[in-house]
Amino acid sequence: MTTTATPVLAQWFEYMDSEDPDRVLGMISDDFVMSVQFSKGAGQSAEFIGDRAGLVGYLEQREKSVLVHHIDIGVTAGGCEMVLGRTTRDGAFEASFTATAQIDEKGLVRRLLIARTPEVSFD
């Protein structure tokens, strides 16, 4: 990852790429709400939604330390961090993703919206 414009999301994806992605649970506010739109391509997708329990469920079904998130563009505006990036598996492109996080006054993630697809590459 190569962005300092979005420090919270940079940390989030660093944790998600690690052996201990559950550390993101310490980054969320008490009123956290999320939606992760996850496409595997060819019209096959799933949505993971909810609060802390929804995030726990999402974390439980993920592969650990397999994908690497690369933030290519990041901006902060109006209390939100927004990124465009890609994931790689063994160095090869897997999917593009966007993520937007609303950050509270304590620096915690209050709202999180992520969408990913292998169908579009921004190369």
Automatic annotation (TrEMBL):
InterPro entries: NTF2-like_dom_sf (IPR032710). It comes from the Bacteria. This is SnoaL-like domain-containing protein. It comes from Gordonia paraffinivorans NBRC 108238.
